[in-house]
Design a protein that fits this description.
With 284 residues, the chain is of the alpha/beta class. Helices cover 47% and strands 14% of the residues.
Length: 284
């Protein structure tokens, strides 16, 4: 569980979007925050007059030394870490066949392995205090998939699976895990932050190509409000029983329920074939 008495938040990816809005709200509550980004100049303004409660640090989550240094500096400055928010991450557009190896691996390094490294770095201090909250920013794309974002889905499905196991492992140690699954929000995800493969194969223009165009066309018009999303994360963090998963936005809720229906349909339709794969119950 999160300590409510002047908690210390360590947030990655604060230059824009959820990370930036969350840092603002944490500080507005009078709490303490370590605000990080690859480009320190993009988060310096968040500290403002809060130098006693806020610390801005440069952090590339794919750099293990920077990860360890940020955690060490946080503990040195504030003596504890109550909440880790693994927010750093980005998207990549490509049909699976169009995916470029270096770009795909780089995204996995940030979205998955960076998140894992940050988590492992803060866990010893949380275990020592027998309290803490780890917030992993996933996506509705960690539950359901679309054309052109397959590799991004791969990173978020990985975050979901890792987070579920982590939750089971750390719950008895007094630590909670919250998986946040936003739908479309007015962040930079679909704009300046998104990467795309230069490779374009004509055969995928009506599937992956069409989805690329849809994503580009809706940038800045998404229904989701990052400020309200940040407040929702804080509300969940303050709960005595935070959920394992927190969907954000009506679009995410509708897509998640649609995925549940699809799973149930397949499971029920093929139940006989599924059960028939076992040894017969009366076989010795």
């Amino acid at each position: 569980m999160m300590n409510r008495d002047n908690p210390v938040w360590l947030i990655t990816g604060c230059s824009t979007g959820f990370g930036r809005e969350l840092a603002k709200l944490v500080l507005a509550r009078g709490w303490r925050a370590v605000i990080t980004a690859r480009d320190l100049s993009k988060v310096a303004d968040l500290v403002g007059n809060n130098t006693d409660r806020a610390l801005a640090l440069q952090l590339d989550v794919t750099d293990r030394k920077q990860v360890d240094d940020v955690v060490a500096q946080t503990l040195q400055r504030f003596g504890r870490i109550d909440v880790l928010v693994n927010n750093a991450g980005y998207g990549y557009l490509a049909a699976i066949e169009e995916g470029e190896d270096d770009a795909v691996r780089a995204m996995f390094e940030t979205n998955v392995f960076g998140l894992v490294d940050m988590t492992k770095a803060v866990l010893p201090a949380m275990r020592e205090r027998h309290s803490g909250l780890i917030v992993n920013i996933s996506s509705i794309g960690g539950i359901t998939s679309f054309a052109s974002t397959g590799y991004y889905h791969g990173t978020k499905y990985a975050v979901e699976g890792i987070s579920e196991s982590l939750a089971l492992e750390v719950k008895p140690l007094g630590i909670d895990v919250l998986i946040v699954e936003p739908g479309p929000f007015r962040t930079n995800w679909a704009g300046p932050s998104i990467k795309q493969s230069a490779t374009r194969i004509d055969a995928y223009e009506s599937t992956a190509g069409e989805r690329r165009r849809q994503i580009e066309g809706r940038n800045g018009k998404q229904a989701g409000d990052p400020v309200r999303a940040a407040q929702a994360i804080i509300n969940a963090a303050l709960s005595d029983t935070p959920p394992l998963r927190l969907l954000l936005g009506k679009g995410a809720l509708e897509l998640a329920r649609k995925k549940l229906d699809l799973l149930r349909s397949d499971f029920d339709t093929w139940e006989g074939i599924t059960i028939g794969a076992d040894f017969p119950e009366n076989e010795s």
